[in-house]
């Protein structure tokens, strides 16, 4: 079975998150989520054993909660998709569930955390990212993921797992040169190592390491401290992604030069990806796509074809992260907040320096994101932030503008960051996590710088 990291997670959370947030789920997403669950349910004993093994490696509290959440996620997706799956002859499909209207959420904690129920699983899955050992679980699931397209713009996503962590760096690395775009980088990392990162990231039989699967000579040349944390981390996120972007750009330029000299033929991007896998020398010697050896025929060529086939799916998956890419400083507000998707809501949490008490509340998140992107210090509450900047019509809101809702006598009780296409990034309420969701009906927009 061909598998792609992050696809089943996004397929499940796309459907579950949409239910939570009352959004319509496009028919392709319903079909793909249903297919993902069906593939897992019909998997061989070996595949099921891998799932169990991945979960069993977690610490006890995380293991129990992960088992519950994965099971509940499957139930939610089945509830969302079963009514739309064509029934066998003479069997009438159940009517679709009624949409859940979006709620106006307060900037204060609820008296009690909401009880866990099936529609709450979109939130629960987001919370997985904050549990000890769960990145390892997500990595383990990456090796079991069916090849389904993974998300559409306009759908209410509850992104979890590594794709949310990698997204800002995918965009940055995908802007280094004209020939290498973000969807290609995302597809390559899915095929290379399933977005698995960190100290326990697998090492290939040949000794390639990290999410970019760098061999020592290539890492010595391209590995740099991209995120300014004082380390050059082959198992990290920023450093390997930027190294991959630069290496691919160099290979792309080299192959373009060879094509002009008439020594190689073929699609430049195809040959660039082949060179990433087999080395530029293999492309040069073959005069194009490497062929004639077992590894080239059974590894390099399928590797190239697989990455190219996934580009469109990853372009759709990444689109919620890339709204406002040309909006200047405002897009950096979105990017700053995007780093914290999956972090728990904590009343009174967060300020210009980052999360506190383990998370953010809504105005703590906006305070941090605006300050990190622009240096502008906002007042601490949603009511006082409303008085900064100028109001703009909601129809004219740009990514990075602030959105205010849950209007009360003292002003707005909730604040969020607009990301585009009718979506906002926010810390909703107690028991929830930082996530992307649809803009509430009563919201007003404000441009604060």
The radius of gyration is 23 Å
Low-pLDDT residue intervals, each spanning 5 or more residues: 1-30, 39-48, 76-94, 97-161, 324-328
The average pLDDT value, as a whole number, equals: 73
Task: Assign the CATH topology of the largest domain.
Answer: Lysozyme
Q: Portion of residues in helices?
A: 40-55%
Spatial arrangement of strands, main beta sheet: 1-6-2-3-4-5
- The counted number of beta strands is 6
- Choose one word for the global shape: elongated
- Report the span from N to C terminus: 50 Å
What's the helix count? 16
Biggest β-sheet strands, sense, barrel: 6 strands, antiparallel
CATH class of the largest domain equals: Mainly Alpha
The CATH architecture name of the largest domain reads Orthogonal Bundle
Instruction: Tell me the β content.
Output: 5-15%
Order of helices and strands: HHHHHHHHHHHHHHHHEEEEEE
Question: Structural class of the helices, strands and pairings?
Answer: alpha+beta
Total domain modules? 3
Can you characterise this structure?
- The chain is α+β, with helices and mostly antiparallel strands and about 450 residues long.
- It folds into three domains: about 80 residues, no CATH class; about 160 residues, Lysozyme (Orthogonal Bundle), CATH 1.10.530.10; about 120 residues, endopeptidase fold (from Nostoc punctiforme).
- About 45% of the residues lie in helices and about 5% in strands.
- The chain contains 16 helices and six strands.
- The chain has a six-stranded antiparallel sheet.
- A hairpin with a 2-residue loop joins strand 2 and strand 3.
- The chain is elongated.
- It starts with 6 loop residues before the first helix and ends with a strand.
- InterPro entries: Lysozyme-like_dom_sf, NLP_P60_dom, Papain-like_cys_pep_sf, PG_Endopeptidase_C40, SLT_2.
- Keywords: Hydrolase, Protease, Thiol protease.
